[in-house]
Design goal:
The structure holds four protein chains of four kinds.
Chain A lengths: L11 E7 L14 H6 L8 E3 L5 E3 L2 E6 L5 E6 L13 H12 L14 E8 L2 E6 L4 H6 L26 E7 L3 E6 L12 E7 L2 H9 L5 E2 L9 H4 L4 E16 L9 H10 L2 H8 L29 H10 L5 E8 L2 H16 L2 E8 L3 H9 L5 E6 L5 H5 L14 H9 L2 H17 L3 E14 L2 E2 L16 E2 L1
Parallel strand pairs in A: 1-10, 1-11, 13-14, 13-15
Antiparallel strand pairs in A: 2-3, 4-5, 5-7, 6-7, 8-9, 9-10, 11-16, 12-15, 12-16, 17-18
Helix pairs in contact in A: 6-8, 7-9, 12-13
Chain B lengths: L18 E10 L3 E10 L4 E6 L5 H9 L6 E9 L11 H7 L4 E4 L3 H4 L6 H11 L6 H14 L5 H4 L9 H13 L5 E5 L7 H18 L2 E5 L3 H7 L2 E6 L2 E7 H6 L4 H10 L42 H4 L25 H4 L11 E14 L9 E14 L3 E6 L5 H8 L7 E6 L2 E2 L9 H6 E4 L13 H6 L11 H14 L16 H13 L5 E5 L7 H18 L2 E5 L3 H7 L2 E6 L2 E7 H6 L4 H9 L3 H13 L1
Parallel strand pairs in B: 3-7, 3-8, 5-6, 6-7, 12-17, 12-18, 15-16, 16-17
Antiparallel strand pairs in B: 1-2, 1-4, 8-9, 10-11, 10-13, 13-14, 18-19
Chain C lengths: L17 H22 L32 H37 L1 H16 L2 H12 L3 H28 L2 H8 L4 H37 L11 H8 L8 H27 L9
The complex binds adenosine-5'-triphosphate (ATP) (2 copies) and magnesium ion (MG) (2 copies).
One magnesium ion binds next to helix 14 of chain B.
Chain lengths: 477, 629, 284, 315
């Protein structure tokens, strides 16, 4: 931890987080907690996604894309080593990518590597990746956890030891309390501003700010209780950063089940809900209302608020048209603070247009995954979708729990992925617009990434663009 | 600290009375319990307080101690020599220094008066430690054992380590007494300290009290129902009735020339040799035709051995009851347990089935495990019954007398199926009790009722008297509607001499004797065939005692009730029982018809017992003789 | 017949103790609130008015509004229903199952005692939370499942309290006396054991009531209790946590309501306990 | 003695086995697939099957049961498929933390409850007694998380006397341990103390009218003194019962306080494990709880007979 703030030349920083990793192996265990702690800090990829959502070189100094947009040739950074002392080479790239495709990886994210046809080592520092078809998404994904670079000798016990090329190693893990990261002195890049960075885990948002106020932690990252911010906002001792994340609060409607198999009913829901009011009441006004399932940091983002303005009269009309007046529905709400907060206001607004939603809680994740996600046994739900660039994952799959009929976007999406960057953005915008027009789901708002920190801490990544919490640049004024 | 002893007191001259009580009135919110009580006691004086049960005797003494129960208040004035303050309304702070030191009290009910979770030794030691009359904890413990020995508790060192529930009623009472004597008080208040004691021990204990009182000039206020005890030890007597002192005077005057009709009634009722025209014992109500004993022409009737002069009694009784030396009827020869044929002593009705005995006890042994005193200490065994055998025929009135702690209560508990023998067999009304399961005892219980020795403990504090008495009517098989229940209860209350409105009160609102009557009423309400009664009249004043004894006689006659009657009062046993067994140390040392035992005791212990018993006439005569001689 | 002390005054009903009166009054208040909520609340307690959020007390909103702009007073009235329901049903379950179990164990001894007390032990070790999670997961979380889980979780407490009291009562002579008059075990339990352990059991009831109300709050928060938007005092309190620094009144109202209910039941419990102790009030 | 010990052990064992079956079945009855949770959204059926095989959750229940239960006597709780670690040391760590927290809290609670409860009983008609009763009743009405939060707001955030939260093992740094454990113990103890106060009051009321207290006063003991020396032990049986029940319940019941003060106790472990459907860990935690509860009860039963010699002989 840290001592009283304001002291000069501090060499450690403590970050408060909610949600502790259960183990260190994101290749077999889902959830954002593991990559949050490890990516960028312990593991690195060939590329990284910067705060604006752009792809930047990391372990690859540069890369070239072939004319047919199918072959990437990476030139690797020299002098990078794993924390076990092994040098980072092209062989490791091949090993890492192929491992995702193997049975060793059981995370569902492995499908992102399906597009890779082969990996060829050209030299120690040059590697060529051949794709089955052109893909814009792939390179972006290489900046997320599937692109993490492993050493063949460092994957024995991934659940408990993490060996990567990043600026930190795991010094200690106090289960139930904290993970201590120690800066490596043989890191290839610029050393972080601190010797140790401690990630302390809290189950409760109020406890994080208490710890900040009593000086036990220096940074509260991804703060979950926006109502508490008011006491920090006017105070010089603290800085409050309101970044964005790639998490969308999605009010899902089961597209395959009555009454939401009728597009008019879904559209009625879109009109019935005042999304700004939802943000204001449920999350104290923090969060961005965008009207579509795409966060502003994505290249194909656009403001789609105009498509379905808040218009209860219109909603009622649509319902009448669909013959769905005085609708009784069940609203399955996962047991998460954001979900409960959102559900209360949503129910109230739905009631105004004559939709009587009965809330049923579902324990998250176990019951929710089982009931809603796997069995599709629900009518309406709400969930925070945190994966980056997940529009297609959600809507381009009729078997997905949303049950959106993807026939209209399937081809367009494939086309966009294969196009060049500009074409990709444009193509995806069309896809997204189609999804929104069909009212496939109601994206209520983009979840904010709120950070409260000691005013003297620098280098805090305000936006959460991927799952990683990048502590490479953290330090003290 | 002003301690009063045989040496000169700190304040006042020797003429100053030890205790002066002026117009003491004790009342609850809605009625007076004691009114206008006056008393002046000088040093070394021994005053008896007698009177009807519930007349306020205990309340008076409790008021002197300043320990009235919640909701009961006292007015008037109480002055104790050596203390300037009036004890009525004095701050607890001050009273605390007096209580237990200058003034001590033996409470009426020994079972509930002792802390059930503390060994008795430490309970006795505590009073010395509290007033620093013992130099150290060890000294106090040693003194406590000494005191327990002084009150004739067998094996005092072991007894000191026992919990109250492991001691017999009489033993507990003696523990209380040891406590009260510990600090050589200036004033000793005794509330029926010997009710649970057999006559030999009673004798010894009385002598002990007398001895310490005489040596130290202690003032003694002694409550008892036993007029012969009063005659034996008290110089003066106060007679209370209905919350008021109705007569006061020297013992001889009051007992031989009673002025107040109530006193006369008491005397009549206490005289078990005298009966009224119907052949029943006198009660206060029927005492009209009774002539009190005139000591002068009775002297020659007194058996020589029964004459006691204060302070010398101890010599006539053996300190240790003799170990059974080949008793006339011992456990070895159960057949010898005499079944006295009904024809010899049968009361009026003789239509008895003389064949099968109602109760048949063979080789009965009960050994208690006295709990380990510490977690790993070893257990000690207490042989309460060491193999006894006897038979009781139907309609018989069977008396059990014997030393305190000789196993009488244990025997009765086993007869009632409330305790299991260690070995031996017990048949009651055709049911084997030994080893019987709870449901197998149902039949037994329909036929047998028990009156417990300790009245308070056997009454549920949360039940009204109505429900307590009616309880046996609710036993399976009985079908009595509630109106009839009320009627029966009312009848029983009248029969035991309790006011009808007692039915709606709770047990703690009654005096000791009243409680005993409640438990007798409960036992008799369903007219059992067998009644086992453990000291059922020892807590009763003589008038009520006479009433209850009459009641028992009636029942025996009317319903062929078989009675097993435990008492230490030989007079009572003699009056009511036709057969007697004498118990000592868990064994029957002698048995036979009452007359036979009383007139010609064969065993040493029986002789001691008979000799130790006191009679009013004898005591009065002795007192007269001492005065004139 | 001996003369008896003149007039033993007939037992007259005396005024019930103050605790009993105050307790009854407070409980009545809660019951009234619950009843009133069936016919009238100032606003629909479930309806959010985002424009009116987080207002202080005013004529329009007696207790202000919460983060959703819901009227707190309406919520308090409505929540009384949930609170009463949860408290009474949970305590009822525990009382009706635990007390007889404990008495049975204390009276019978032997195998019965062994089995029932070990069962109570296991139940005691089994976190109510886990039971609630299971019910919630299997049947869908609701007020009912929460009530059941809390009730079941409270059984061992009652069983143990009842058993230890029973053991003490069974060692008294009045039970011996009852046995001697052939009273059935059931009757002994009802007439001797129950009245004499009632004091402890009543206290256990009132404490359990408090615990149940608060546990419902905790379960609601974990999504295992009354689902939103139905207001329950516990959840209102939980939701106000974040506003302690800014709108403390949001915590004060439900906190006060819970305190009133709990206090009411506790006082009632104490009062009853003292009233039924004949030694304490002269038995009148 | 030896036989009694054996009987007790056998009884313990049977109860324990019954509990294992119950816990095991219970955990299987709860919906939620551990493999599904490990893989999260987007899991494909093939991956799920593969993961289940790896976890062993696809085996017949009876096999799973014995696989787990047979390890228990050896203190082997198995390996969690969520944390991929041996469960035993992890659970033991948490048990230590919880026991320290809860036992300390219970001690403090008793230190509050015994004097105040006695006072409330002795002075049950005077303002002081009514005040104590009232305060204890209000105390019962305070949720312990609220007590915790208020303590933090005042003493940690406001006055800065204590750290707001966190845990340090006593062996590691005793001073820091004390400063961190103070507030959570106080939060738990204040509420538990209020609850116990009520039981103490009731029990003391019960003994106050007993004759032996009058005897004690007749010896010259003051009212209070008599009560302390002769009454408390008599009143202690029901209080002991409740204390033991509360103690057992609190080990998990402290979870809310663990959350507020970020303490790595058994309660939060259980909650996390249930959330992750970490079946083996949940089972193990519950079995540890069962063991603790049984031990507490065994001790309490012995204490009963030590405290009250009248209670049934060595049964
Ligand atoms: N706690 C109490 N509250 C009210 N009345 C009581 C209480 N205790 C006793 N009494 C009543 O006070 C009267 C006097 O009782 P007390 O105990 O002094 O009688 P006693 O003369 O000692 O009788 P006994 O010889 O039977 O012991 C009785 O009528 C009894 O009913
Ligand atoms: N529960 C017990 N545990 C251990 N010893 C006991 C127990 N009950 C009685 N005793 C012992 O057994 C012996 C017989 O006791 P019992 O009560 O039968 O005597 P008793 O003849 O009725 O005496 P008393 O006339 O004094 O009432 C006594 O020495 C007593 O100390
Ligand atoms: Mg008396
Ligand atoms: Mg006896």
């Amino acid at each position: 931890g840290s001592t009283a703030s304001g002291e000069a030349a501090k060499d450690s920083v403590t970050v408060a987080l909610t949600g502790e990793p259960v183990n260190l192996d994101f290749t077999t265990t889902a959830g954002a907690a593991i990559p949050q702690a490890l990516m960028s800090n312990v593991y690195e990829g060939l590329v990284e996604i910067d705060q604006e959502g752009n792809i930047q070189p990391l372990l690859a100094e540069s890369w070239e894309l072939s004319e047919d947009r199918k072959t990437y040739t990476f030139k690797l950074r020299e002098g990078a080593t794993f924390s076990n002392g092994e040098p980072f080479t092209a062989e490791d790239v091949k090993f890492s990518i192929e491992r995702v495709q193997s049975d060793e990886w059981v995370s569902s994210l492995k499908s992102k590597m399906d597009v890779v046809d082969s990996v060829n080592v050209l030299s120690d520092t040059e590697v060529e990746v051949v794709l089955k078809q052109p893909s814009n998404a792939w390179l972006f994904d290489m900046g997320t956890l599937v692109g993490a670079m492993f050493d063949p000798s460092g994957v024995e016990d991934l659940a408990n030891t993490a060996i990567g090329t990043g600026p930190y190693t795991i010094e200690a893990w106090n289960r139930g309390q904290s993970i201590e990261l120690a800066a490596r002195d043989d890191y290839w890049g610029e050393a972080p501003g601190v010797e140790t960075a401690t990630l302390r885990y809290f189950a409760d948002a109020v406890a994080t700010t208490n710890a900040l106020q009593s000086g036990d932690v220096d940074v509260v990252y991804n703060m979950q209780a926006p109502e508490l911010l008011s006491s920090f906002e006017g105070d010089d001792k603290y800085q409050v950063l309101e970044g964005t994340s790639n998490g969308e609060i999605v009010l899902s409607m089961n597209n395959q089940e009555a009454p939401f198999d009728d597009v008019r009913v879904r559209q009625a829901v879109m009109h019935a809900i005042d999304r700004q009011a939802v943000v204001d009441t449920a999350w104290n006004g923090y969060g961005t209302v965008v009207g579509g399932p795409v966060p502003p940091t994505d290249p194909y983002y656009e403001d789609l608020n105009d498509v379905y303005p808040y218009d209860p009269a219109k909603a009622r009309e649509l319902l009448k048209e669909a013959g769905a007046e005085n609708l009784d529905i069940t609203f399955t709400v996962p047991t998460r603070p954001y979900a409960t907060a959102v559900s209360e206001i949503v129910v109230s607004q739905l009631a105004e247009v004559g939709i009587n939603a009965k809330i049923e809680s579902a324990e998250f994740p176990a019951v929710w995954l089982d009931q809603v996600f796997t069995k599709h046994d629900y009518q309406m739900s709400v969930v925070l979708a945190v994966e980056s660039r997940d529009v297609l994952a959600m809507f381009n799959n009729p078997d997905y729990y949303l049950g959106y009929d993807n026939s209209k976007i399937k081809d367009a999406a494939a086309e966009a992925d294969a196009a060049d960057e500009a074409g990709y953005a444009e193509g995806m915008k069309d896809v997204v617009r189609t999804i929104v027009d069909d009212a496939a789901a109601n994206t209520l708002f983009i979840f904010p990434n709120i950070v409260v920190a000691d005013a003297n801490v620098t280098g805090i990544p305000a936006n959460s663009v991927t799952e990683a919490l990048d502590l490479t640049n953290i330090g003290w004024k | 600290m002003a301690r009063l002893s045989d040496t000169a007191p700190v304040h006042g001259g020797p003429d100053e009375p030890l205790l002066r009580v002026e117009s003491l009135t004790v009342s609850t919110q809605d009625r007076p319990l004691v009114s206008d009580f006056n008393l002046t006691m000088s040093r070394g004086e021994r005053i008896g307080l007698i009177g009807e049960s519930g007349s306020g005797k205990s309340m008076t003494t409790t008021a002197l101690m300043g320990l009235l129960p919640e909701g009961v208040t006292a007015t008037g004035s109480i002055k104790l020599a050596g203390h300037d303050l009036d004890l009525v309304g004095a701050p607890d702070q001050q009273l605390r220094r007096i209580r237990g030191n200058d003034m001590t009290m033996v409470f009426q009910e020994p079972l509930t008066a002792l802390n059930p979770l503390m060994k008795v030794g430490p309970q006795v030691a505590e009073i010395m430690l509290k007033h620093r009359t013992a130099s150290s904890r060890a000294a106090a413990s040693a003194k406590a054992v000494e005191l327990l020995a002084g009150v004739k508790l067998p094996d005092p060192a072991e007894a000191a380590k026992a919990y109250p529930h492991q001691l017999s009623g009489g033993q507990r009472q003696r523990v209380m007494l040891a406590m009260a004597l510990a600090n050589d008080p200036a004033l000793l208040l005794c509330d029926e300290p010997t009710t649970a004691l057999d006559v030999t021990v009673q004798r010894q204990v009385l002598d002990l009290i007398l001895e310490s009182v005489q040596q130290r000039g202690t003032g003694l206020l002694f409550i008892t129902h036993d007029l012969s005890v009063v005659a034996n030890i008290c110089d003066r007597v106060l007679v209370m009735n209905n919350g008021q002192v109705v007569e006061e005077g020297t013992t001889v005057d009051v007992f031989s020339r009673p002025q107040h009709p109530y006193t006369r009634g008491l005397l009549a009722a206490s005289d078990l040799d005298a009966t009224d025209a119907d052949g029943r014992l006198f009660t206060v109500a029927s005492a009209g035709g009774y002539t009190p004993p005139a000591p002068d022409h009775l002297v020659d009737e007194v058996p020589a051995a029964a004459v006691h002069t204060p302070g010398t009694g101890a010599k006539t009784t053996e300190t240790e009851a003799p170990a059974p030396t080949t008793p006339a009827t011992g456990p070895a020869e159960p057949a010898g347990a005499v079944v006295v044929g009904p024809e010899t002593t049968a009361p009026a009705t003789t239509t008895l089935d003389a064949g099968a005995p109602v109760i048949s006890v063979k080789d009965l042994v009960r050994t208690y495990q006295r709990q380990r005193t510490s977690l790993f200490g070893k257990r000690t065994e207490v042989p309460a019954l060491r193999g006894i055998s006897f038979d009781v025929a139907a309609g018989q009135r069977f008396g059990v007398v014997g030393e305190s702690g000789s196993g009488k209560s244990t025997l009765l508990r086993i007869l009632a199926g409330l305790d299991q023998p260690t070995s031996g067999s017990v048949r009651v009304a055709g049911n084997e009790v030994a080893g019987a399961k709870e449901h197998e005892l149902a039949e037994l219980r329909r036929q047998l009722q028990i009156v417990f020795q300790d009245p308070m403990g056997s009454l549920n504090p949360r039940m009204r008297v109505q429900d307590i008495i009616a309880e046996p009517l609710l036993a399976p098989g009985q079908k009595v509607d509630s109106a009839r229940q009320r009627k029966l209860v009312a009848e029983m209350l009248a029969a035991v001499g309790l006011p009808a409105d007692s039915a709606d009160r709770f047990p703690h609102q009654f005096s000791g004797g009243q409680r005993q009557r409640i438990s007798i009423a409960r036992a008799l309400i369903c007219q059992p065939r067998v009644l086992v009664a453990d000291e059922p009249v020892s807590a009763l004043d003589v008038s009520v005692r006479a009433q209850v004894l009459n009641l028992l006689s009636d029942l025996v006659d009317e319903y062929q009730l078989t009675l097993v009657f435990v008492s230490h009062d030989l007079g009572v046993v003699r009056y009511i029982c036709d057969n007697v067994v004498v118990m000592n140390r868990g064994q029957i040392v002698e048995s036979g018809s009452t007359e036979q035992i009383y007139e010609a005791p064969r065993h040493d212990y029986t002789r001691t017992l008979v000799n130790s018993s006191m009679s009013l006439r004898a005591e009065l005569a002795a007192r007269e003789a001492a005065l004139s001689g | 017949m001996t003369t008896q002390p003149a007039a033993v005054v007939r037992s007259t009903r005396r005024r019930p103790p103050a605790t009993l009166l105050v307790g009854a009054a407070l409980v009545l208040l809660v019951v009234l609130a619950a009843l009133v909520s069936f016919i009238w609340t100032p606003y629909n307690p479930e309806q959010a008015f985002p424009a009116d959020r987080l207002q202080g007390s005013s004529a329009a909103h007696l207790m202000g509004t919460d983060r959703y702009g819901r009227d707190v007073f309406s919520g308090i009235l409505y929540g009384a229903r949930i609170t009463l329901l949860v408290g009474l049903v949970a305590v009822g379950i525990a009382l009706l199952v635990g007390t007889p179990l404990g008495i049975l164990a204390g009276m019978r001894g032997g195998a019965v005692e062994e089995v029932s007390m070990r069962a109570a032990d296991i139940l005691l070790a089994f976190p109510a939370l886990l039971v609630a999670i299971m019910f919630g997961a299997v049947f869908g979380a609701s007020t009912t499942t929460a009530m059941l889980a809390i009730g079941i979780g409270s059984i061992p407490g009652f069983a143990r309290v009842a058993r230890s009291g029973t053991l003490q009562v069974m060692s008294t002579e009045y039970v011996l006396a009852a046995k001697a008059s052939s009273q059935s075990a059931f009757r002994i339990a009802r007439r001797h054991v129950l009245p004499n352990i009632a004091g402890m059991v009543v206290v256990q009831c009132s404490v359990s009531f408090a615990i149940a109300v608060l546990a419902e709050a905790a379960l609601s928060f974990l999504g295992l209790g009354t689902p939103p938007p139905v207001p329950s005092w516990g959840r209102m309190l939980q939701e106000s946590q974040q506003f302690l620094g800014t709108y403390p009144m949001l915590a004060v109202w439900p906190g006060l309501a819970i305190a009133v209910a709990v206090l009411g039941f506790n006082l009632l419990g104490d009062g009853l306990r003292d009233k039924f102790d004949p030694k304490l009030n002269g038995g009148r | 003695m030896a036989i009694r010990l054996l009987v007790n052990l056998a009884r313990f064992a049977v109860t324990y086995v019954a509990a294992t079956v119950l816990v095991f079945l219970f955990m299987r009855a709860i919906p939620g697939d551990p493999a599904q949770i490990a893989l999260g959204v987007n899991a494909t059926p093939e991956l799920l099957a593969q993961t289940r095989a790896e976890f062993g959750t696809d085996r017949p229940l009876i096999v799973q049961y014995f696989d787990w239960a047979l390890g228990l006597p050896m203190g082997d709780f198995g390996t969690s498929y969520v944390t991929r670690q041996d469960i035993s040391p992890l659970v033991l760590d948490r048990v230590q933390v919880s026991l320290i927290l809860v036992v300390l809290a219970m001690i403090v609670a008793l230190l509050i409850a015994v004097p105040f409860g006695t006072l409330a009983a002795v002075k049950h008609r005077s303002p002081g007694g009514i005040l104590v009763s009232g305060a204890s009743q209000l105390g019962v009405a305070v949720p312990n998380f609220l007590a915790g939060i208020l303590l933090v707001v005042v003493f940690a955030v406001g006055l800065g006397w204590f750290p707001a939260n966190g845990w340090t093992a006593p062996a590691e740094d005793f001073g820091d341990f004390l400063s961190r454990v103070a507030l959570p113990v106080l939060a738990l103890a204040s509420v538990q103390g209020a609850i116990l106060t009520r039981y103490v009051r009731s029990a003391v009321m019960e003994v106050m009218s007993e004759d032996y207290l009058r005897t004690a006063r007749a010896k010259g003991l003051g009212k209070m003194e008599a009560l302390l020396k002769h009454g408390l032990r008599n009143a202690s049986i029901p209080v002991l019962t409740v204390t033991s029940v509360q103690l057992a319940a609190l080990i998990i019941g402290a979870v809310v306080i663990e959350r507020v003060f970020v303490i790595p106790g058994l309660g939060s472990m259980l909650l996390d494990a249930v959330g992750n459907r970490d079946l083996l860990t949940v089972q193990s935690v519950v079995m540890v709880l069962v063991a603790i509860t049984l031990i507490i009860n065994l001790v309490v039963d012995v204490l009963y007979t030590v405290l009250d010699p009248r209670i049934r002989k060595a049964s």
